[in-house]
Design a protein that fits this description.
The complex is a heterodimer of chains A (1014) and B (467). Chain A is of the alpha/beta class and 1014 residues long. Helices cover 23% and strands 17% of the residues of chain A. In chain A, strand 2 and strand 3 form a beta hairpin. Classes of the chains: A alpha/beta (1014), B mainly alpha (467).
């Protein structure tokens, strides 16, 4: 033993030092997290509690519908948009586009300050300088007398702003503005005005028994999709008396896939079918024209006759004869007496009032091209992208003397401008919208502006007040006071109105009226043009006309029909593809008189064999990092043709479709579109609903538990909770003990998904991205290395590798039509299944995790502990539902190129949910943060949880109300009843997983004559 | 019994009837010492080989740094195929690691004479193969810096690994196997270290060998203890040979994935491991016997005997393949049936047929005695079997995961350059160790060779003086 004194460091000291340094190294050295600082508010803002959300009622401006939304604001920043349950239009639901508005707000590529063109470049300037230039140039224009030729292109909206704008324009001697909405179903609006006297009469799906949709994609992008979807789903939820939907059109859209029958009429032949229904032609004539079975038309005529006033015929066509056809479709309603029953002009929606036609934009372009426009303004309208190339907008616009953009994003049009005065995002702005008749819905800023932007209304008012000649007509100093001044009841009433979803009243200042121009379209009749195929162009259900392309949530959201993201594609029928020798992903070149595009082929049996379909929305050359270089712009192949009301005809031409040389892997989330008899999406006939329940005969094998369907939740809690070694007699139930102080064991969180309601719209997917900080992985820079020096920079490269992170996905399965490569048949059924973690009571993922990173909570949740996960991915292998997602890259690490939330996009992260690090597994948590928040709130208020007190993000958003979440162990919750519905089933029940997600079978409504075929 | 006077016709007498006639060309103890120890000299070729191996190892090492920095996304994983080349290569190397202990322990207990010449090399191969295999689960996990969470160690959070998880069983199985096979290798080396110590002239090396030989003095007592220890370890290792790969097979068999969830997996994996292990022994030993001029130690008889083991295990493995198909059909479970169809005739037909060709068809050539005794053919066959056994694990891992229950999530898989760097790196790592081994330690057990060599009688007087 070394006990000699004075030999330097003593053994004990040495050990102490060793221990201390070792511990320090271990503690400091092993932490991979950066040390941050938490600074509390010195003076807390009023009504703000750190970590507690505030909700501001405002109005969504992403489309003309005007849904009421609640912005969830945490510490001054909105982190999520939810539907406002009190709003009459959307009743709490919200669509993907609406939720993705946050990514417009926090878009890293937004204009951050005013810009002025100096030479060829736009350079940042101060607002003072920018406004000075504006005033100066406006003065010059007015002094030269050119004001009357000014053009103001404003994104279409309702409410007060158009009035203010026109007031400002007229004060400056300028003509009224153009209100542009390329997504508006303009032909339908024109026919509605003529036939019903209202731009958008209310559609009562509930009163209908037979719905005829002539390409009226009321579940995709046609009209007001959230209220339409609510109405449709409620009507279908009646099951037996639910309306039957017949879809007539060359391409089966999402609405078409939800239809019970598809009549694949040749493009341009729809009027022939209308004539037959109206008795003006025979079924045989219609069948020949439309290239469909005569029997189909005969049955359709009979069905329309039988439905009487229960007929709801809708026309959403975009052909050059759309207005004439729409008028005939309205005649069907009139003939059946369903106007006032299913179509209610008295309860019209005002969202499309004041819309300018495409022809007006064409005429403005012609004036610009003639060099007669001295000044043009553009605000969030992008005609340089969203007009057919043959119009030559960009060239014409270049001839305008002075071009001002109020757009918030550098898009194709605003980048051509000389002065950029970036507007606030609508979430930063005051405003309002007029929705259903007589209802006014307010919009209020929910945060301080993210960037150095100014409200366009304030800029206009300011510019007018700076001009001595017109200052007197603008007594208010800003837009808010301007709105208050026109509001009955003044400031106090206005403040009260803001807290309400919607108030009665009309907009004080009405807009200027215009006369719409009219002239014949240059396009020949559809089908007469050159080319071997019809070219069917349609607005994307996710990206719209392209305005959604800058939002990664919408890019990442697979198209509900084709399941393709981050890409353009050409839909072609498998028969035609086979004839052309084209395989999925081979490029097809579509050439029309207007132009040419090349995109990978997607063989789709929902498009006619003589038609190819291309979606709008991609192919941007500007509009931010998420939009640039993704796909092709379908406007390129569109001729500038319009219908008799002057609206752009999207389906107006034939084209030559040839096989290109390239091949691109499709960025698809689709595996197999067939169920292979595995009972994932189950359906039953409507007639079977009320049939007496037949005692099911199980295969009685002695000693075998039947694997036939048993309704409800077989296992009240986890298998572990049965006791030690799953032995019910065991007394050792640990935390699963009902007497355990947490009392968590008394709950069983569960979910039901009603497939009779679900339309596959995918709003739940985006809701989940928003709530749970799910990274988008498809941007060009997020790919992997293909070699030590090259990276996979295809858009969606990670999704091609199957690495999308959507915790909830919409599986789309086809039934029938298996010989699709050789035979064209319109008779196939589509079933949509939202698939998320099933929170199995007997979860296969749990026992295989070596570190207990996934385990079962006493209240029935399958819990994933990110901090504990080491990333063996065994759980995912063992999950039959394949609902676990892995962080292949550091999507949450700003220093990695795969970072999913480039500043300031990360402001939308939900602080209640961890941003997962690389190398860990994640999955649906049943929004555990919402469960715990609800439980904590109940506890702090010293009460029990109320039934249906809160719900998950997907269920909250769902515009079909298909998802219901709650405590299945408490019979007061809706889910507890629904889980024992007659239609209830579990997916892969034979695997004994005891899932907590219960699906309710889809209900099919076959044609009355064909009801025997299931 | 053959004698030295009667040289054995190697072509005519395939079997090793007894120890006496195993090594007809080896005349005495000194020849053994001389020839075996002469293999230890450094040569230029060896240095080149080592450099290649180290370079390959560095490719893998840099790939690892790269992968840890960026994340596992740089590998070719394509969900739902969440396991890929790393797990395939892990199972491959664990399988390789089986032959050594089988040869040194089980064949020792069975008194199989042909084991003597090859067991040391095979045993070293085992240790290095398991060392290689052990890296792959760590490479494979998403947060490799947390791999120790799989080890049960006391901690203040009272967190333990999940003892239900086959991956935790793997940790125990592999670490136990590595410990025991290393110990076994070392114990067997002790008398040989003593020989090296006695013959070494370099004082530094002599000292190291001296320490390693634990002061072996060749006494009867030492030999008695040694023999007991060796027998004990052989008996101890024997069940491990069977258990390790059974446990590895549980990684698959305990999951409910179609194509994995099969009770035949443990015996099937053990047979496959022995099969691949013997092939790897050929891959190593056939060039080695040529380059080190050890043909008269590892004779054609030895190769013939190992070829019979390979033929037998090939039949076992082939039988297991057939039974898998039969059970898939017999089960009546649709996902299982569709999966097996997809494996052989669908998406993955090429991988399955590579496997069937290499593991079932080509080894059938070993029914021919001529081919069994043709080292060139055996070496090429060993390469085919190595490829076939790698593909067997590929066929188990990838097609199963890509074609599970949910058709919507059916997928595909293609390894990336990072995966391939690890595969190359693993061979570099393995051969680096093996090449270092062959120049530091005798590739054959000198003391056991001496047991089977009948010493030449120099003359009667000397012989008399011996006793």
């Amino acid at each position: 033993m070394s006990t000699e004194a004075g030999s330097g460091v003593k053994r004990r000291d040495f050990l102490k030092i060793l221990g201390a340094t070792g511990a320090t190294t271990a503690v400091v050295g092993c932490s991979s997290e950066k040390v941050g600082k938490l600074i509390p508010y010195v003076t807390s803002p009023d009504n703000t509690v750190a970590g507690v959300s505030q909700f501001y009622a405002t109005t969504c401006k992403e489309c003309a519908t005007g849904c009421g939304v609640l912005a969830e604001v945490r510490d001054g920043r909105p982190i999520k948009l939810e539907g406002n349950p009190d709003h009459p239009v959307n009743r709490g639901a919200i669509c993907a586009t609406g939720m993705a508005a946050l990514q417009g707000l926090y878009n890293p590529d937004r204009y951050r300050q005013p810009m002025l063109r100096e030479g060829a470049e736009l350079t940042p300037v101060t607002w003072d300088r920018a406004l000075e230039v504006l005033g100066q140039r406006l003065g010059e224009v007015k002094s030269r007398g050119g004001a009357a030729n000014a053009v103001f292109m404003n994104a279409h909206e309702t409410g007060s702003f158009p009035g203010l704008l026109d007031q400002w324009l007229s004060a400056n001697g300028m003509p009224a503005h153009l209100s542009v909405d390329t997504m508006a179903p303009a032909a339908t609006i024109a026919t509605n005005r003529a036939a019903y006297g209202a731009a958008w009469p209310a559609i009562d799906f509930n009163a209908a028994s037979l719905i005829l949709s002539f390409s009226a994609d009321f579940l995709d992008a046609w009209g007001h999709r959230v209220p339409q979807q609510l109405g449709w789903a409620d009507a279908r939820a009646k099951l037996e008396g639910a309306p039957r939907l017949v879809y007539i059109g060359a391409r089966r859209s999402l609405t078409g896939l939800n239809a019970d029958q598809w009549i694949p009429a040749r493009p341009g032949s729809e009027m022939a079918i209308c004539r037959a229904i109206l008795g003006q032609a025979t079924a045989a004539e219609a069948a020949t024209a439309a290239d469909v079975d005569e029997g189909t038309i005969t049955a359709l005529i009979a069905a329309v006759g039988a439905a009487g006033s229960g007929v709801l015929a809708l026309c959403g066509m975009t052909t050059p004869d759309a207005v004439e056809c729409g008028t005939m479709v309205a005649d069907i309603n009139k003939q059946n007496g369903s106007v006032g029953t299913t179509i209610k002009p008295a309860e019209a929606h005002a969202g499309y009032e004041g819309l300018s036609s495409y022809l007006e934009l064409v005429e403005a372009t012609e004036r610009m091209n003639a060099g007669s426009v001295p000044v043009a303004f553009v605000r969030n309208v992008n005609p340089a992208y969203s007009m057919p190339a043959s119009v030559g907008f960009a060239e014409a616009f270049a001839k305008v003397g002075f071009k001002v953009s109020f757009s918030i994003m550098p898009d194709e049009t605003s980048l051509l401008c000389d002065l950029i005065l970036p507007d606030h995002h609508w979430l930063e702005s005051w405003g309002d919208a007029v929705t259903v008749a007589g209802q006014r819905s307010f919009q209020q800023p929910v945060l301080e502006p993210v960037f150095d932007t100014r409200s366009v209304a304030d800029v206009l008012i300011g510019s007018a007040r700076a001009d001595g000649a017109i200052a007197a007509s603008f007594p208010q100093s800003d837009y808010r006071s301007w709105m208050v001044s026109g509001f009955a009841g003044g400031s106090d009433a206005f403040a009260t109105a803001l807290t309400q979803a919607s108030v009665s009243g009309s907009v004080a200042a009405s807009r200027a009226t215009r006369t719409a121009p009219s002239r014949p379209s240059p396009a020949p009749a559809l089908g007469a043009g050159e080319g071997n195929m019809f070219v069917f162009v349609y607005p994307s259900a996710t990206l719209g006309d392209g305005s959604g392309a800058n939002k990664p949530w919408l890019q990442e959201l697979p198209d509900p029909v084709t399941k393709i993201a981050w890409q353009s594609w050409v839909e072609i029928h498998p028969i035609t593809a086979k004839q052309m020798g084209v395989k999925e992903g081979d490029h097809l070149t579509v050439t029309t008189a207007a132009g040419e595009i090349s995109a990978p082929a997607y063989p789709y049996m929902g498009v006619r064999p003589d038609t190819v379909a291309v979606a709008l929305g991609q192919g941007h050359t500007a509009y931010g990092r998420f939009a640039i270089g993704v796909g092709v712009n379908a406007y390129t192949v569109l001729p500038s043709a319009w219908d008799s009301a002057g609206n752009l005809a999207l389906v107006s031409t034939r084209g030559n479709v040839t096989r290109g040389v390239e091949h691109s892997a499709l960025v698809t989330t689709e595996g197999s579109a067939r169920q292979h008899g595995r009972g994932i999406a189950q359906a039953m006939m409507a007639a079977a609903i009320s049939a007496p329940e037949v005692e099911e005969h199980h295969h009685d094998i002695p000693g075998h538990v039947s694997q036939e369907f048993l309704p409800g939740l077989k296992s009240p809690v986890a298998a572990d909770a049965q006791g030690e070694f799953a032995n019910p007699q065991s007394k050792d139930k640990g935390m699963y003990n009902p007497e355990h102080p947490t009392r968590a064991e008394s709950r069983r969180w569960a979910m039901t998904v009603d497939l009779a309601r679900c339309t596959g719209c995918s709003a739940c997917v985006t809701a989940c991205y928003s709530e749970n900080n799910i990274p988008t992985v498809g941007a060009r820079y997020q790919g992997r290395a293909l070699s030590p020096v090259t990276w996979d920079e295809r858009p969606g490269a990670n999704i091609i590798k199957g690495r999308e992170m959507a915790w909830i996905r919409l599986e789309r399965y086809y039934e029938g039509n298996t010989n699709t490569e050789n035979e064209f048949s319109p008779d196939f059924e589509t079933r949509f299944v939202p698939m998320m973690c099933q929170h199995c009571g007997n979860a296969p993922c749990e026992p295989v995790c070596p570190v207990y990173a996934t385990y079962h909570s006493p209240d029935g949740l399958n819990v994933q502990v990110y901090n504990r996960c080491v990333g063996t991915r065994y759980c995912s292998n063992n999950c039959p539902y394949k609902v676990r997602y892995y962080n292949w890259f550091g999507y949450g690490e700003p220093e990695r190129k795969q970072y999913a939330w480039p500043e300031p996009m990360h402001w939308l992260l939900n602080p209640d949910v961890t941003v997962r690090g690389k190398g860990v597994m994640e999955k649906c948590t049943f929004c555990v943060q919402r469960i715990r928040e609800g439980e904590n709130r109940a506890r702090s208020e010293e009460r029990e949880l109320r039934a249906d007190e809160f719900t998950t993000a997907c269920a909250q958003a769902c515009p079909s109300r298909a998802i219901v979440f709650g405590d299945a162990a408490d019979e007061n919750w809706s889910v507890a009843k629904l889980a024992y519905d007659r239609r209830a089933y579990h997916v892969f029940e034979e695997l004994n997983t005891y899932t907590a997600v219960v699906y309710l079978k889809k209900v099919n409504h076959p044609a009355p004559a064909a009801s025997a075929t299931a | 019994m053959g004698t030295i006077a009667q040289p054995v016709d190697e072509l005519r007498r395939p079997n090793i009837a007894s120890a006496d006639n195993q090594l007809p060309a080896v005349k005495d103890y000194e020849q053994v010492d001389r020839e075996i120890i002469s293999t230890l000299g450094f040569t230029k070729k060896w240095l080149i080989g080592l450099s290649v191996a180290v370079f390959a190892m560095l490719i893998g090492a840099s790939a690892w740094i790269y992968q840890i920095y960026w994340g596992l996304g740089q590998a070719g994983y394509e969900p739902p195929v969440m396991w890929g080349v790393y797990i395939i290569t892990f199972v491959f190397w664990v399988g390789i690691g089986h032959a050594g202990t089988l040869i040194s322990a089980i064949l020792y207990l069975f008194r199989a004479g042909f084991r003597t010449s090859i067991y040391r090399a095979a045993e070293a191969m085992t240790v290095f193969a398991v060392m290689t295999a052990g890296l792959f689960p760590i490479i494979h996990i998403g947060r490799p810096w947390k791999f120790f969470w799989l080890i049960p160690y006391p901690n203040w959070r009272l967190l333990w690994p999940n003892f239900k998880s086959p991956l935790v069983w793997d940790v125990f199985a592999i670490s136990t196997y590595l410990t025991i096979s290393t110990t076994f290798l070392y114990i067997g080396l002790i008398p040989d270290f003593a020989v090296l110590r006695d013959r070494e002239t370099n004082p530094m090396r002599k000292r190291i060998y001296g320490i390693l030989s634990l002061g072996w003095r060749n006494s009867d007592r030492e030999w008695r203890h040694f023999a007991k220890a060796y027998l004990f370890l052989a008996a101890f290792s024997t069940p491990l040979v069977l258990s390790v790969h059974s446990v590895v097979s549980f990684d698959f068999a305990m999951a409910l994935v179609p194509g994995w969830h099969a009770s035949i997996f443990p015996p099937y994996f053990v047979a496959g491991a022995i099969f691949s292990g013997f092939a790897m022994v050929w891959t190593i030993v056939i060039p080695m016997r040529k380059w080190f001029r050890l043909e008269h130690y590892i004779t054609l008889n030895h190769l013939d005997a190992t070829a019979k083991v390979v033929l037998f295990t090939s039949l076992v493995v082939g039988c297991a393949y057939m039974i898998e198909f039969f059970i898939a059909w017999y089960s009546g479970v649709r996902p299982e049936q569709e999966f097996f169809w997809n494996r052989v005739f669908g998406q993955w037909w090429w991988a399955a047929w590579i496997m069937l060709l290499c593991n079932m068809a080509l080894p059938m050539s070993l029914w021919s005695q001529k081919l069994r005794r043709n080292p060139t053919w055996l070496w090429f066959l060993s390469i085919f079997i190595n490829i076939g056994m790698w593909y067997e694990r590929f066929v188990i891992v990838v097609p199963s995961l890509s074609h599970e229950f949910s058709p919507w999530q059916w997928g595909s898989y293609a390894p990336s350059w990072v995966d391939m760097s690890f595969l190359v790196g693993s061979f570099g790592w393995f051969f680096m160790w093996f090449l270092l081994f062959v120049k530091q330690m005798p590739v054959m057990a000198i003391m056991e060779l001496k047991e089977i060599v009948v010493p030449r009688r120099k003359h009667a007087a000397v012989e008399g003086a011996h006793h």
